[in-house]
Design brief:
It is a single chain. This protein has 176 residues and is mostly helical. The chain has a single domain, classed as Arp2/3 complex 21 kDa subunit ARPC3, CATH 1.10.1760.20. The protein contains 8 helices and 2 strands. Strand 1 and strand 2 form a beta hairpin. This is Biotin transporter. Belongs to the BioY family. It is a multi-pass membrane protein.
Length: 176
């Protein structure tokens, strides 16, 4: 892996850490900007670098930095957010992989909704089910307050990624 690639991964992880530390608690799962960051980083950097940026971000949280909704350490990985956190790198890889193949604005929105929201909600709900012993349907219902905001984040992430990808100078910088 080239220094340029490692720098992009580090910048992606730093972006995620900076916006992922902001949280508004509304229940077992807080409102954050994590998904905006993950969808944007994955769409811009692609599958490998986007997925690695998310893994680095999660490792920063695991070692104790307060980047996971304002907390860090092992607790977020064994509490109600475990399913969401485990879904993040998978979603990033799938969003990045898909965006490498079809990078139109509508396609980016679709990937963000399918993988960034659908997959993350699914795995997050499974985590809630395991941690709280709730039914899957009840766990899935926990996501309802997040839907409108997350759809806005999906569109915003697609717009940012599309703008970056259609800017010749940015394309050159990312490709170098």
């Amino acid at each position: 892996m080239k220094i340029h690639d490692m720098t992009q991964i580090a910048i992606g992880a730093a972006l995620l850490a900076s916006i992922g530390s902001i949280a508004i608690p509304i229940g077992p799962v807080p409102i954050t900007l994590q998904m905006l960051g993950i969808m944007t980083v994955a769409s811009v950097l692609g599958a490998k670098k986007g997925g690695l940026a998310v893994i680095v971000y999660l490792l920063l949280g695991l070692i104790g930095l307060p980047v996971l909704s304002g907390s860090g350490g092992l607790a977020p990985f064994v509490g109600p957010t475990v399913g969401y956190l485990l879904a993040f790198p998978i979603a990033a890889f799938l969003i990045g992989w898909s965006s490498e193949r079809h990078h139109s604005f509508p396609a980016l929105i679709g990937y963000n909704v399918l993988f960034g929201l659908g997959l993350v909600y699914l795995l997050g709900s499974l985590g809630l089910q395991a941690v709280f012993g709730m039914t899957f349907i009840d766990a899935l219902k926990v996501n309802i307050p997040f839907i409108i905001g997350d759809l806005i984040k999906a569109v915003l992430a697609a717009a940012i990624a599309y703008k970056v990808s259609t800017n010749p100078q940015m394309r050159k910088t990312l490709a170098s």
